[in-house]
Every structure is written in C-alpha cells, then in structure tokens.
C-alpha cells in the first residue's frame, strides 16, 4: 500500500465535501462524530464493490483498492476525513459523496491509479439506497448499548424486589392512603414494565434488518446490473454478521420512514416508564422530616450550597429530565417521517441525528439509574412502617363482610377519635 501523505493539510475528501462544509457548516454533530455511521457506510461501499467486481462492473484491481480503503475506514483510521455536518439538506447526498471521495482518494493511493468517486466507488448505487442502508446498520449497532443498559436496570429492580420481598408498605391512590402491598411487588412491577417496553424497542429496531440496498433511484434499480441487489445484500450480511434481507418493496422502503417513527415511539415509551418510576421514588423519598420519608435514596452529592447536609434526589431528576429530551427528539422524528413527499423521504439526516440522541439518553439514564440509585436504595425510611399501619386493608375486609356503609361509618368514627386524641 502507498503511505498516506504526512502533510498536515493533506485531506482525502474532495470538492463535494468542501461544498457541503461551505453550505452547511460543521453542524452540532459531524459525520466523523458518529464513527458507527462512517464504519457502516464503508461496509455498504465494500459490499457494493464486491458485487460490482463479480458482475464485471469494475476491474479487479480497482475493487481490491476500494475494499482495502473501506477496511481502513472501518478501523477508524480516517475519521478526520468526514467533516460534513450530519444534518444537511439534500437527503444525505453530501454524506454519500464525502464517503465516496475519501474512499476514492485512498483507493487511488493504494492502486496507484485513478479511482473515481462516482464511476467506481458509487457504481450501481445512489444516495437513495446507500444512505438508508448505512443508517439502518448504524441504528442496529447503536441500539445494542441502551438495550443492554435497560437489561441491567431490569436486573437491578428484580434484585431489589427479592431483597425486600416481604417488606410491607402503604399503597396510595390519588395520593391518598389505600391498602398495603409489599416492596417486592412494587419493584417487580417496575421490572415488568421496563422489560415490556425494552422488548418493544428491541422489536422495532430489529425491523431494520430489511435493507433497500440495490434500490438505486427511487427503488427502480436503475443503473445497477441484474443480480447486483442480491449479491450486495448477501455480501453486506456477511461483512456485518447481521441477518440482513432485501426490503420486500423497494419503493416503500425509500418513500416511507415509519419504521424509524416506530423506534422513536418505542424509545419514548421506555423513557416515560423510567421517568414515572423515578418520579415515584423521588416522591417516596421526600423529607426526611416533612415528606413521605419511606425510601432512602443514595446520597450521591450535596443538595444545597447553603443548606448544609441537605440531600436531593438528583438521580431520579436526571432520569426525568432526559425523558423530556427523548420526547422532544421523538417528536422530531415523527415530523420528519411525515414530511417525505412522493417517492422519497429526504429527511433521513435529522432522523439519524435525533435517534442518536434518543439511544444515547436511554443508555445514560438507564445506566445511571441502576448504578447510582436503584442498587443502593433502601426502604428503611423513618415512616415506612408507621405509614403502612394507615392502610385501608381492614376496612376493605369489613366492607366485604358487613357492607360498604357500615365500614364507612366505622372509618369516620375512627378518624374522629384519632383527631380528638391529637387535640387533647
């Protein structure tokens, strides 16, 4: 292989990449800031080169050089060569061209001959089919972390349920006293809810194993030879180790991005569940003198710069705040999925960007919630046991045996006597 230029100003990207930088600036997140997308786009180009070589679209020497260049990119060797903004106009064309130009330039160095970004690297392809394919592979990869973090959080709740399986606490409806239940039942319900919502997210993500590579423009397959689509998808599955299949309807795959809206919705559902649980624990830990004071959350940091010794429920509040941001990103994806006109939805870049936020925030909130809160919380608050004594259990039993009205009269009489005793 030819060595890369050591000149600090030497770059592999070309004119179209530079125009993209000029038109859209660096953005808050650049293509190179998402190594998974760069890596998966390189895999798409490698699979395309292999298929094109088999079909005689490009020469063996050029194909070998393209594959060698994509192998280097996959290792992160050229991450600095992808400076274009992740979110940009044109349906990802600038992103595709950035990848094409870098591969072509490096392949030219390797082969010692000119490799063209369009004629060779982009042969039998379009941004229409390569971008959504690389995007699907990226989401499949990035989703692994939040799903694993959710599994850990579920395990933390299951463990806490086992630890306090027989500990009794007061249940509430409308924030008023109800009947008692166990802490084990409470935390087991947390685990069940998260297990259900995580399964929904996993199922939605798994739909992305159907990819539109070979669709070229609009799903027509124009510009690609017979047999290319099958070879390219099979080769990509081999390269990634994923059970990839070709989209059943290529026209649908390019025009409709509702699978990403489904992932966003599933991610929002996960975050809503985490936030609800976090808010409940925040309320149950309120006090310690003037609140529920049933749960003790780990004291992870000082809660005030002036009230010495004050501790706040910082971790539940963190989980709640991230859920707000996840909901905002989910709305962005819904709007973008609905914005495609006619045969192509060009809003994929903003969907990719928002999905990264959703997956990152789910991973962060689930990890922190499990490690910095749930595993160390205790149910030894000052009023857990005394509050449990206020449960309506005996009154519910009495109503079942003697009637609702008789039980209600006895409840009122008991409360009146209690108030009189307090007054004395």
Features:
single chain, 424 residues, mainly alpha, Fumarase C, Chain B, domain 1, Fumarase C, Chain A, domain 2, 3 domains, two-stranded parallel sheet, 16 helices, 61% helix, disordered N terminus
Present the secondary structure layout:
Blueprint: H1 15-24, H2 35-54, H3 60-74, H4 93-111, H5 117-121, H6 127-142, H7 144-163, E1 168-173, E2 176-182, H8 183-206, E3 210-211, H9 228-240, E4 245-246, H10 250-255, H11 258-284, H12 314-337, H13 348-372, H14 384-388, H15 393-402, H16 404-423
Parallel strand pairs: 3-4
Antiparallel strand pairs: 1-2
Counted by DSSP, the helix tally is 16
How many E-type strands?
Answer: 4
Supply Rg. Answer: 29 Å
Low-confidence stretches: 1-8
| Mean pLDDT across all amino acids | 95
Q: What shape does the CA trace take?
A: elongated
Can you say what the CATH homologous superfamily of the largest domain is? Fumarase/aspartase (Central domain)
What is the H/E order?
A: HHHHHHHEEHEHEHHHHHHH
CATH topology of the largest domain: Fumarase C, Chain A, domain 2
- Terminal CA distance reads 94 Å
Just give the CATH class of the largest domain. Mainly Alpha
Q: Summarize the biggest pleated sheet.
A: 2 strands, antiparallel
Strand line-up across the major sheet: 1-2
Helix coverage percent of residues?
Answer: 55-70%
